[in-house]
Amino acid sequence: MKKETTQINKIAPKVIDASGRTLGRVATEAAMHLMGKTSAKFERNVFSGLPVTIVNASKLKITMKKLEEIQHTKYSGYPGGLRITKGKETMEKKGLKELVKLAIYQMLPDNKLRRKMMLGLEITD
Asked: DSSP E strands: which ranges in the chain?
């Protein structure tokens, strides 16, 4: 059986400037392009997304109140293995690039195509 190859590298990436914009607005625009919903040939069961490059991620407009509200969870699979981290902790440890990446990841559909879609994402400060 022939393996399906993704053609992410052959297409020019969509560039999104994040300076002065809010986290949610940037993440939704990127998610729409990664899913392929902006193209006429969109199909839910076939990967047809475009690569996305987000520039100036460190210049996002985000308030401290929003950073306290954002929560990310990880579960190890063992009893008592649920770890909840706030957005402020994530920003201090890994930066705003990681917050943008996690926001986009959560906006993509939870299926087998999600990993292919995330390969087309590139975030720069």
From this structure: 14-17, 52-55, 71-75, 82-86, 121-123
Rounded to two decimals, the pTM is: 0.87
Q: Could you tell me the residue range of the domain that residue 25 belongs to?
A: 14-123
Residue 87, CB half-sphere, CA atoms under 13 Å: how many?
18
CATH (domain of 34): 3.90.1180.10
CA separation for the pair 120, 33 (Å, rounded): 10
Cα separation of 102 and 62, whole Å?
Answer: 15
Tens of pLDDT, residues 7-31: 555 778 999 999 999 999 999 999 9
How many domains does the chain fold into? 1
Quick one: tokens of 86? 């706030």
End-to-end CA distance of the chain: 41
The span from the CA of 53 to the CA of 44, in Å, is 22
CB burial class (10 A; 0-12, 13-18, 19+) of residue 26? buried
pLDDT digits (tens, 9 = 90+) for 32-54: 999 999 999 999 999 989 999 99
